[in-house]
Structure formats: C-alpha cells, structure tokens
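Fig. S4 source data, part A: sequence.
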Amino acid sequence: MEKLDLNDLCKFANDNIVVFHNARLERLKAIKLHEVLRKKNPYLFKAKNINTASELVEGILNAFISSSEEKMFGDFLEKLAIHVCEKVYNGSSSSATGIDLEFERKGTRFIVAIKSGTNWGNSSQYTALKNDFLKAKKVLSQKGKFKNIQPVLGMCYGRIKTSDTGLYIKIAGQNFWFFISGNKELYTDIIKPIGYKAKQHNERYEKERARVYNKFTQEFLNEFCNDGVIDWEALVRFNSGNYDPAFI
C-alpha cells in the first residue's frame, strides 16, 4: 500500500474534469430537436398542461441534458476511482465484462464494478451484474493465481450501509473511497479538484445552452405549432406514429 499523493490526485482530477466539461459542451452542440423529441414522452408533457413552446422545449432539453450528463460524469468518477486505486494498491482497469477495477489487498483479489450512485440499476441490470461477477470470479479461479476473490459493487456517492449479499459486497460514498484508497477523508478531498475552473466552464456551457434553447424553440414553433398553439396530434404522430398492420 502506498500513501495517496493529493497533489497527483488534484492534477489528474483537474485534467479529466476538463475532459468532462468539453464533452458535455460538444454533446450540447451536437443534439438536434428531432433527436430529443423522439426520446421524450409527449403524453407526459400534455398531462402537465404545458401550453407554450418555450416551456415544452425547456422541459425536454433539461431532461435530455440531465440524463446525458449523469452518464458522462459517472465515467469521470470511474476514471478517478481507478486512478486512486492504481496509485495506492497498484490496481488496474479490468478486461472482464462488467468489471471496472481489480486490485489485491491482504491476500484477497477484489473485482469491482463501479457505479456513480446508489440508484443506478433495475432488477435486470442487477441480474446481469451478478452474472458478470460469477463469470469473472470463475475465470480468475481457473487461472489459479488468486485463492480469495471478492466481488464488490462500489458506488461513488450515497449513504447506504455496507452489506454483503453473499456474492458481492455493496459499498458506497465515504466507505467506497476509503476502500480504494485507505484515506477516510478522500470523499471530501476530491471536491476541490472536481470544481476546478467550474465557473469558467459553465459560463461557456450556459451561453451555448441559451443558443440551443432559442434555436429549438424557433424550430418547434415552425414545425409543431399552428398559429402559436401546440399541435399535440402532430407531435405525437412524429414521436410514435409507426402503424404497420403486417405485424399486428
């Protein structure tokens, strides 16, 4: 075990948070109104009694951006966690399906699936995760290198109690960052570098977001409004119209 160098951690986080900000900006620049409209539920917006193009566009854009950013920021946290473990326990990215990190400590080989938060998956995804753990554990056992192999579901934030399911350990928040670093304060130490130049990055982002918002509103008024009134039937047809009696 090596002591974590916080200066190295800050440099890594600073460099990679820039990648996150650039990625979210480029994603925003690339999205199209039709792409967003096809992925969001028009019935929900009608049920919420939304009557203006600007309100509808803002709602679908915010929902789309939120889900996209959650994935990108989760990727950043995963890279950060792997980097930390690499420096402290000589950990490394795993080549096994569904497994993100592997490292050895006190005679135990840990295989870790890293998720952003505690509400990451449904029952099918948990079943897939169990299967991935079983396969990875079997492969490592057959190699004969490791006597004790422990699967771990690690979540970067959240306050659930650490628990053992019998197959894998669930660990989140402060305990997760301590688990991969040996530093019980790491979960707060990473806040400062994560916020590196956040103001500057978000000023660029908000400027582009305003442009996209105005552009989408204008396009929506032209395509899905009649005399300033939302044509809900036209919107639903665009989103869901696919009548094909051959398969019904």
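Fig. S4 source data, part B ends here. The longest helix spans residues 53-89.
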